[in-house]
Amino acid sequence: MIVGARNRIPSLMAYFSEHWHYGIRPESFSPDTSEVLADNGPSIALIADDTGSFIAELATMRRQFAEVILLSDTPNLKITGLRPADVGGEIGVRLAVGGRSASSNLVRRVLDLVIAIPATLVLMPCILVAAAAIYAIDPGPVFFRHAREGLSGKPVRVLKLRTMYRDAEQRLETLFRDNPDIQAEWSNHFKLRQDPRILPVIGHVLRASSFDELPQLVNIIAGEMSFVGPRPFPEYHLSAMDSEFRAKRRSVTPGLTGLWQISERSNADIELQQQLDEFYIDNRSLWFDWHILLSTIPAVLKGKGAC
């Protein structure tokens, strides 16, 4: 039984229905309902309420249900890195601190090089073919470097294959001037679902497959990026985030892929991107990195939300 605000219940029901492997079959529950639960009713209560209005009813719920789950990271109550803790026989919670040990960072660096160097050699012919296709459609530089914020605030010039027309900035300004709805979409996602700046065919293929990001293997070999971490965002993207979160992002090396890329990809708005990045940073570990890296493959193959 999902307990929470009416506007959140449908999305949570859809999520647990899609992710059936969690073993939760969702049923909605209205806060206005005063009916006593039948014996054959739900055995789990999942509370997704960020106002605290159900806290007083927790004792009753514990008697009614075999298990009560408090869903953290609700929109207005962000508790990232929350882990259970047994303190003298009492149940407590512990805010996790992400793995920042020197040994873990060294292992990450070694793994990055072991994977990135062979991958660059193998993929270079494909990258050159894509570059030739870009030049054939819109002659000019096929690679470009964009300044992003990296570890400790150090600038990182991220290398990418060009997927847009060379005058993309002017085209974007024209779109904003002629269509306020497009500007609103840009303000929420910093991407457009139907973006006329993208090169025909090759641009869409490269972005849908994330192939345009592969030149960043060079950034990984140089030590400016890692395979897994918060994506390095441009300044206009970071300016929409609060200063505390930006400082938190600077505490880890930016990555080629990350948690919000495999879960939401570009469908995530600014608030959800921040929430997922915070969760990753607070729970960072080598095993978590491997999970994200392996999960990136099916996410890219599906192409969901990439364009």
TrEMBL record:
<comment type="similarity">
    <text>Belongs to the bacterial sugar transferase family.</text>
</comment>
<feature type="transmembrane region" description="Helical">
    <location>
        <begin position="110"/>
        <end position="137"/>
    </location>
</feature>
<keyword id="KW-0808">Transferase</keyword>
<dbReference type="InterPro" id="IPR003362">
    <property type="entry name" value="Bact_transf"/>
</dbReference>
<protein>
    <submittedName>
        <fullName>Lipopolysaccharide/colanic/teichoic acid biosynthesis glycosyltransferase</fullName>
    </submittedName>
</protein>
<keyword id="KW-0472">Membrane</keyword>
<dbReference type="Pfam" id="PF02397">
    <property type="entry name" value="Bac_transf"/>
</dbReference>
<dbReference type="GO" id="GO:0000271">
    <property type="term" value="P:polysaccharide biosynthetic process"/>
</dbReference>
<dbReference type="GO" id="GO:0016780">
    <property type="term" value="F:phosphotransferase activity, for other substituted phosphate groups"/>
</dbReference>
<keyword id="KW-0270">Exopolysaccharide synthesis</keyword>
<feature type="domain" description="Bacterial sugar transferase">
    <location>
        <begin position="108"/>
        <end position="302"/>
    </location>
</feature>
<keyword id="KW-0812">Transmembrane</keyword>
<keyword id="KW-1133">Transmembrane helix</keyword>
